[in-house]
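Go through this:
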Amino acid sequence: MPERVGLYPGTFDPVTNGHIDVIERAARLLDKLVVGVAMNIGKGPLFPLEERVDLVRAETVPIAARYGMIIEVKPFTGLLISFAKDVGAQMIVRGLRAVSDFDYEFQMAGMNHRLDSSVETVFLMASETNQFISSRFVKEVAQLGGDITSFVPKLTFERTMARVRGSGEP
């Protein structure tokens, strides 16, 4: 049986419990998951690309060990479907939080299918406790002095708060 390889792309700025939830759900279905961390400077990231890659890598090590599978974390720029082919992914994993995500994701899946019909898009719902979490809201709450401990993993919490405080170090 061929290896089942999936690609979960995003900016992960910062990685949230919602992202971790989708990664864990995908880990149950795949032999290997590549988490593609997009450059996406247009969104004005809180963390530089290298630090986002490091945070996602650190937060996903326990998941890979728990499910006995491989999780690779790689930065990428350019066309998602090209990156999927480069990493040998047969599927792109996308997380859905709410109905509002669906329209955009539906359009992206259709475009990716037209570009390369050999790569499927699979949608995974975040659990009900994580469906409302977004990186954008986490950054806003942190910058306004709110408590984000229930929205992000511990290491990400420490790094986010250090970045928001301006020290860059926890």
